[in-house]
Design goal:
305 residues; five-stranded antiparallel beta sheet
C-alpha cells in the first residue's frame, strides 16, 4: 500500500500534514473485538460517547505524517505514561496498533491490553474546540447531581488514595501475618476499596480503564483529566461515539466536506428557528447569535459576496 492519509474521526476531514492528535481506544466492555450484533438498528447505549470504545490514555499530539502515523510528537506526561506502561517508544506504540499479532508483541509489556487497542485521529483544533471551557469547570461548588459533581468526587477520591496502594497493602498483609501491630494508617490502607475511587469515574469501563492501570498523577494531570471529561461530555451531547478513524486514501476531501457542512448548517438553522419560537424566554443563550450570524452569512453567499 502506498502513501495514504487518515481522516479526523469527528469532522471526517482529510489529515495529511496538519496538527493531529491521536486518542488510543479500548473496547468498552473489555472484549478483543467490537460486535455490532446488538446494534443493527441503532447504536443504543446509556454510556454516551463510550457506547463501544473508551479512551486509553490521554490524547497524543503531533502532526500527521503518513501511513496512519504522526511525527513531531509532544513528549508530555501522558506520552511518558503510555511508554512506561507498554515498555516501548510512543512511535512504536502507534505504529504497531492493529498490525501486531499475538506472536509479534515480544518486548511489549501488558501485551493483552495492547492487542485490544484501536486509535482515532483528530484534527487537533477540532479536539480543542470540544475541550473548550475546561478551565472554567467549577470543581469547588459544582451543581448537585451533575457530571461535574461526579468528576469532583472522583478526583477527590483518586487524590486521597495512597501511591502504590497494592504494594503497600501486600506489605501490610505480610506484617499482619507476622502478628505485628498495625498503625491506624496501615489499617486504613488495608481496608481501602481499590475500586471506590472509580465509582464516579468518567471512564465507563472501569476495570479496563487506563486511570486504574497506569501510574496517573491525579494532581499534576488534573487538567488533562478535565479536558478529556469535557471532550467526552460534548461528544455525548452531540450523540457522537468514539470510533477509529477512516482510511483517507490519497486525495483530500475538503471541498466535499465543506459543501456538506453548508447544507447541514442550513438544515440545523431551519430546525433551530422552529424550536426558537417554542422555547421563548427559555431558549439557550447560544441560539440567537447562531441564527443572526447564519442569516447574514447566507445573504452574503446569495449575493455572491
Amino acid at each position: 500500500m502506498g502513501s495514504f492519509h487518515a481522516t479526523c474521526a469527528i469532522s471526517h476531514m482529510t489529515l495529511y500534514r496538519q496538527r493531529t492528535s491521536i486518542q488510543l481506544l479500548i473496547p468498552m466492555y473489555g472484549d478483543d473485538d467490537i460486535s455490532l450484533a446488538e446494534h443493527k438498528n441503532l447504536i443504543c447505549s446509556n454510556e454516551g460517547a463510550q457506547a463501544l470504545y473508551s479512551p486509553f490514555g490521554f490524547p497524543i499530539h503531533g502532526r500527521y505524517y503518513d501511513y496512519g502515523r504522526i511525527d513531531k510528537i509532544e513528549r508530555d506526561k501522558g506520552v511518558e505514561d503510555l511508554e512506561k506502561f507498554f515498555g516501548i517508544r510512543i512511535e512504536e506504540i502507534i505504529a504497531k496498533i492493529n498490525r501486531a499479532k499475538d506472536g509479534e508483541i515480544e518486548g511489549i509489556k501488558n501485551g493483552d491490553t495492547y492487542l485490544k487497542l484501536g486509535m482515532a485521529f483528530y484534527r487537533t483544533e477540532v479536539l480543542e474546540h470540544l475541550q473548550r471551557g475546561w478551565d472554567e469547570v467549577d470543581l469547588t461548588n459544582p451543581d448537585r447531581y451533575t457530571s461535574a459533581q461526579r468528576l469532583k468526587k472522583f478526583l477527590e477520591a483518586a487524590q486521597k488514595e495512597p501511591a502504590n496502594l497494592e504494594e503497600q497493602r501486600a506489605a501490610i498483609m505480610e506484617k499482619r501475618k507476622a502478628k505485628q501491630q498495625l498503625t491506624e494508617d496501615e489499617l486504613e490502607i488495608l481496608f481501602t476499596n481499590s475500586d471506590s475511587k472509580h465509582q464516579h469515574s468518567y471512564i465507563t469501563f472501569r476495570s479496563n480503564s487506563f486511570l486504574s492501570k497506569m501510574d496517573i498523577d491525579f494532581t499534576a494531570q488534573q487538567s488533562d483529566i478535565i479536558k478529556q471529561w469535557m471532550f467526552l461530555r460534548r461528544m455525548g451531547e452531540m450523540d457522537r461515539i468514539l470510533m477509529p478513524s477512516s482510511y483517507g486514501g490519497q486525495d483530500i476531501n475538503h471541498a466535499e466536506i465543506y459543501l456538506l457542512n453548508e447544507v447541514v448548517q442550513d438544515l440545523l438553522v431551519e430546525d433551530l428557528e422552529d424550536y426558537y419560537d417554542d422555547w421563548g424566554e427559555d431558549a439557550p443563550d447560544d441560539v440567537a447569535p447562531i441564527l443572526r450570524s447564519h442569516g447574514r452569512g447566507k445573504k452574503f453567499r446569495e449575493l455572491g459576496i
